[in-house]
Amino acid sequence: MLERYQPSGRVHPMHFVLAGAATAAALPGAWIYQELLNWVPFMVVHILLPVAVGGGLGALAARMAKRGRCRNPVVAVATGAIVGATFLVAGYWVTYLDHRAVIANYHANEIEQHHWRTLKDVGVVSLPGNVDPATVRLTPDFFLLGYSFQEHLASRVKDGWRSHGTHYAGHVVYLFWLIEAALILGGSSMGGLAQSRRPYDEGSGSWMELIRLHQVSDTSRDAANRLAEADEVHPLLTLVPQVDGGDVAVTYQLAKPRDPAEPAYLTIKQVSIEPDKQGQGVTKVRTLQSMVLLSPAQTADLLQRVSKAAAAPE
After folding, report:
1. Could you report the per-residue pLDDT of 224-272, keeping only the tens digit for each?
2. Phi, psi angle pair for 233, to nearest 5°
3. Cβ distance 255 to 290 under 8 Å?
4. From CA 7, how far away is CA 242, in angstroms rounded?
5. What is the pLDDT of residues 166-194, one digit of tens each?
6. How far apart are CA 54 and CA 262, in angstroms?
7. 163 pLDDT above the threshold of 70
8. CA distance 21 to 15
9. How far apart are CA 194 and CA 82, in angstroms?
10. Do 61 and 83 touch, CB atoms closer than 8 A?
11. Which residues lie below 8 Å from residue 12, measured CB to CB, with a gap of 6+?
């Protein structure tokens, strides 16, 4: 039975510091994002921009996990999701505040043009507590009464937006919001997951160095399949042979600790060119073995085999 690397589940306090800083940075970022969506009314931008933001937040989450030495996948996903959720909610809230300001400015101009002074001037005939409307000064805030965040969202769904003469509203807005949330939350939450699962050297307190040890450019699929089916370490230490007419490549990657007396971890991948639906060749990568634990003796054996293969004549 093969042993594989398992994250320790530990998290350095710096990860939470970085997550807090990223969450704070999401606030102005959300404002810029929403302003771009409002200024550029093209549907393609409304799709590509969330893709870019999701990718950027994913890269940020991976950086948080790396710099913060997060070896806990659950924590990495949760903190990334918090950053993404903050970005989304802040963006909607900023738009709400902007719309309130637009409404207030519009009615401030109306008040000035019509010389309205009190609530009675706009038709208010009674107030709670028998307060005379003629004694209550009229301000733009009066017209914002009842304009809640929920009302704002409802108006956005109803009004939608126009792009190239087409009006998008109703269910299309809900669909866009769903796609937007999936892209941004998906990117931000999954960004740190892969990093948190990478081998970490607990002894030295650093991520292990990933080394591309060896590649066999032309080998058979049968040889690659035997590696995928192996349930012991020894077959993995025997480098697959290069054969004439081989249609796949096999790469060996090693995660090495600083202390050679500690275990290393071997990953083996298959790279091949496969036809797509249009018959075009597409590069595909298949992981044959992932993060298999090698003892110091097994690591030394593999390195020796790689050295001999490198020194052998072509």
Report:
1. 999 999 999 999 999 999 888 888 999 999 999 999 999 999 999 999 9
2. -75, -40
3. no
4. 35
5. 777 788 888 888 999 999 999 999 999 99
6. 37
7. no
8. 10
9. 17
10. yes
11. 68, 69, 70
